[in-house]
Structure to design on (429 residues):
């Protein structure tokens, strides 16, 4: 086993040194990454290239990892025995088991517990490495030199422009997080906005911001599951950002059907979420999916965009525009990872204790590992714009007042938002 490990170390793109449990040293004499093993099982996982299981060894203290996360991920990608997409692909029995598990894992009560596990870890911890608005989803680097905060504002506006938000419209944000999109839409587009979340921390945070900004008359945040939303008073526009990954593959059709019932005729829905790059895998192989399930997103499931589109159509919606933002999310995640790495002592103080140390180790690998996965195309991020099905009318290209989608893309690339807001009627054209 040690000879296998030594050959692997020699082939890595960055110099790596391995310290064995007995103190012996293998690998580069002047390393940029250093693995210090305390348990022989970690050596076996290193030899197998099971990087996700090796990540669990790190979280549980069976191995220590020294070096920058960027160098660590270069080494991790090279350790893999093959594509983690192929490693996660199963046969018909695997798919059947996954479907049964997807149904079981996503009751209203289980989803609430799973969301609390991740998002209620610590608001102060997330604030260390997110932008000031705490936008916890893929940014949009409209210009290459943008900083994270600028790119997140560009993403918020990108969504609002795609949805063609208008003053006075009723807007729903499903899975509103810390309120970035909800408040951006209300303050910059004049909508009457409702957000929902299952996170108590996020609900309290956004409710406080609404009051501070004096928006209580037309903005609200509710602690509510999307399945319990009242669809008797549908909305003009709906956004769901970073939420449907938690829905479960077996529930996607009913999820989109629910959004359709919540949407007025002629309105628009924007679904923004992480998708699988492999058609047949709901997670990544080589232990990577198990790592995310155990330490980061219990109950999370990935779905290829083709399967998403099928579920969307079966749910009664028509797709209008599909955009892949995969490299944008890679850059976003590296910005988060770099931000956390720069504040490790603060993060350790905030999380505290043995469990806090385990959480911090898990998040270090999660952020950098996901950045690597997006860079390699193992996962992707798609924005899908949709509406209710066509009704046979012949005037859709004439932009009638009761229809929102123009069937032309120039509305995305015209004047900047500030110029639109300065127009005589304050509305987008």
């Amino acid at each position: 086993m040690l000879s296998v490990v030594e050959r692997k170390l020699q082939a890595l793109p960055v110099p790596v040194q391995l310290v064995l449990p007995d103190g012996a040293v293998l690998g580069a004499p002047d390393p940029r990454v250093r693995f210090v093993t305390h348990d022989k099982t970690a050596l076996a996982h290193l030899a197998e290239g099971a990087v996700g299981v090796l990540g669990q060894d790190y979280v549980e203290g069976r191995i220590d990892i020294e070096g920058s996360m960027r160098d660590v991920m270069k080494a991790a990608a090279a350790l893999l025995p093959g594509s983690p997409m192929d490693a996660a692909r199963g046969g018909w029995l695997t798919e059947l088991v996954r479907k049964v598990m997807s149904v079981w894992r996503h009751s209203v009560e289980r989803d609430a517990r799973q969301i609390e596990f991740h998002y209620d870890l610590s608001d102060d911890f997330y604030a260390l490495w997110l932008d000031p608005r705490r936008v916890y989803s893929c940014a949009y680097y409209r210009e290459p030199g943008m900083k994270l905060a600028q790119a997140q504002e560009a993403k918020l506006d990108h969504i609002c422009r795609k949805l063609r938000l208008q003053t006075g419209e009723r807007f729903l944000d499903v899975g509103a997080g810390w309120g970035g999109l909800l408040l951006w839409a209300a303050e910059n587009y004049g909508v009457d906005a409702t957000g929902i979340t299952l996170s108590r921390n996020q609900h309290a945070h956004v409710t406080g911001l609404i009051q501070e900004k004096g928006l209580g008359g037309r903005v609200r945040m509710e602690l509510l599951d999307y399945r319990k939303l009242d669809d008797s008073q549908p909305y003009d526009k709906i956004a769901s950002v970073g939420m449907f990954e938690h829905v479960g593959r077996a529930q996607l059709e009913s999820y989109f059907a629910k959004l359709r019932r919540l949407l007025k005729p002629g309105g628009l829905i924007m679904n923004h979420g992480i998708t699988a790059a492999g058609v047949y895998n709901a997670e990544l192989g080589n232990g990577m999916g198990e790592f995310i399930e155990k330490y980061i997103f219990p109950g999370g499931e990935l779905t290829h965009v083709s399967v998403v589109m099928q579920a969307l159509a079966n749910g009664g919606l028509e797709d209008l525009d599909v955009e892949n933002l995969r490299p944008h999310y890679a850059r976003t995640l590296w910005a988060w990872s770099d931000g956390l790495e720069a504040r490790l002592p603060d993060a350790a103080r905030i999380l505290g204790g043995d469990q806090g140390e385990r959480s911090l180790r898990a998040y270090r690998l999660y952020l950098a590992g996901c950045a690597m996965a997006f860079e390699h195309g193992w996962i992707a991020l798609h924005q899908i714009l949709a509406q209710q099905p066509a009704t046979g009318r012949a005037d859709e290209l004439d932009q009638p007042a009761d229809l929102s989608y123009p069937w032309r893309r120039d509305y995305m690339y015209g004047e900047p938002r500030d110029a639109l807001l300065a127009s005589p009627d304050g509305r987008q054209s």
